[in-house]
């Protein structure tokens, strides 16, 4: 897991003294020391994924997370400095949300190993109930945050993303943009291309769609009046759960309590319950419409979708032509009222930076075209 720095822990004690005991007791006593990518003093960074029924066991048990732990973590994270340090390079925080191992990790290894380590951070939220065969290794070693089960059709997927944002905010003040990714995501450009695209933007990239088919059913999935009065139907939005948020919006998400309380309810109609695709676009729409580009930079193909899942690319489909086609496609920009008259939005042609879903067996074909195609802009 990623432990907060001594400075962030001090801030936590000062800002949230009554809950300090709750925060500190979640840190295990056994840690593994690593060198921080920006050259600062190393932090103790323990891993948190349990290794029950594995061939290679972890050296300690994961900590037990108390009920109030997330509440205190999010509260402290929402109060971190809103700006990155002057004179320091901006960093991209890559947030991997997974309920399985990372089968495409070798491709990400190549992606990250071709760039200076002071330009990015990696954070992994891994379902602790999964029987992992081995610990996360390479660039993912010791990057697992304290994690809880994340289940489809429940708000636990939202909680996992908020947890990732909170740890990233507390861990490194230089984190400027926060990109949420899944285990089936791949990069479709070089790190340098992605870095320039994200760090030059002053706005978040988050898909926010209005008047979509099925909006009412999703809004009423917890009951016809469950979202009222805080979230009216006209304020409800749909969008991709994979976004790139600025530091400002990362703090907005972890600091939210009002809108989160409405989404943090069990659905009574499960087949229209996709909280992670509704909470983030609804919150940002209600709080800061002008601060976003209403589109996701993670490509997905919903043609031929099954059981709520998009198309999955297999090994036989992976090749130069596929990557070129994914790059040619352009994001769908949401019509969100205020953005309708914003020429800087309606005339944008932002590139997709990532794509999903790719099957585990596609890793070898992906590696074979990594240097000549994927990382060749």
TrEMBL record:
Residues 30-54 are annotated as: Disordered. It is a single-pass type II membrane protein. GO terms for cellular component: membrane. Keywords: Glycoprotein, Glycosyltransferase, Membrane, Signal, Transferase. It is found in: Membrane. PANTHER family: CORE-2/I-BRANCHING BETA-1,6-N-ACETYLGLUCOSAMINYLTRANSFERASE FAMILY PROTEIN-RELATED (PTHR31042), CORE-2_I-BRANCHING BETA-1,6-N-ACETYLGLUCOSAMINYLTRANSFERASE FAMILY PROTEIN (PTHR31042:SF60). This is Uncharacterized protein LOC111286025. It comes from Durio zibethinus (Durian). The gene is LOC111286025.
């Amino acid at each position: 897991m990623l432990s907060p720095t001594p400075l962030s822990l001090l801030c936590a004690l000062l800002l949230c003294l009554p809950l300090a005991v709750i925060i500190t007791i979640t840190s295990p006593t056994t840690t593994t020391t690593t060198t921080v990518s920006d050259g600062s003093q190393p932090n103790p960074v323990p891993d948190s994924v349990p290794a029950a029924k594995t061939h290679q066991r972890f050296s300690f048990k994961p900590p037990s997370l108390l009920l109030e732990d997330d509440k205190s973590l999010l509260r402290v994270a929402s109060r971190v400095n809103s700006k990155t340090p002057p004179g320091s390079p901006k960093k991209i925080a890559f947030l991997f949300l997974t309920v399985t191992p990372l089968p495409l990790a070798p491709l990400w290894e190549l992606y990250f190993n071709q760039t200076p380590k002071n330009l990015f951070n990696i954070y992994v939220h891994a379902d602790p109930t999964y029987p992992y065969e081995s610990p996360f290794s390479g660039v993912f070693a010791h990057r697992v945050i304290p994690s809880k089960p994340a289940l489809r059709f429940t708000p636990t997927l939202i909680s996992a993303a908020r947890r990732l944002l909170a740890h990233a905010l507390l861990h490194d003040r230089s984190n400027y943009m926060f990109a949420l990714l899944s285990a089936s995501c791949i990069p479709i450009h070089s790190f340098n291309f992605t870095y320039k695209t994200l760090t030059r933007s002053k706005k978040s990239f988050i898909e926010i769609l209005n008047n979509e088919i099925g909006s009412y059913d999703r809004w009423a999935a917890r009951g016809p009046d469950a979202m009222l009065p805080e979230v009216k139907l006209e304020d409800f939005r749909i969008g991709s759960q994979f976004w790139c948020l600025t530091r400002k919006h990362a703090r907005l998400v972890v600091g939210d309590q009002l809108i989160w309380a409405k989404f943090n309810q069990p659905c009574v109609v499960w087949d229209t319950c996709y909280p992670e695709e509704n909470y983030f676009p609804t919150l940002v729409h209600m709080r800061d419409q002008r601060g976003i580009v209403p589109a996701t930079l993670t490509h997905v193909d919903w043609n031929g979708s099954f059981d709520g899942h998009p198309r999955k690319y297999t090994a036989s489909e992976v090749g130069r032509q596929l990557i070129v086609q994914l790059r040619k496609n352009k994001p769908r920009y949401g019509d969100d009222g205020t953005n309708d008259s914003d020429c800087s939005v309606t005339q944008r042609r932002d590139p997709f930076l990532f794509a999903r879903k790719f099957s585990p067996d596609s890793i070898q074909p992906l590696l074979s075209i990594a240097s000549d195609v994927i990382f060749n802009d």
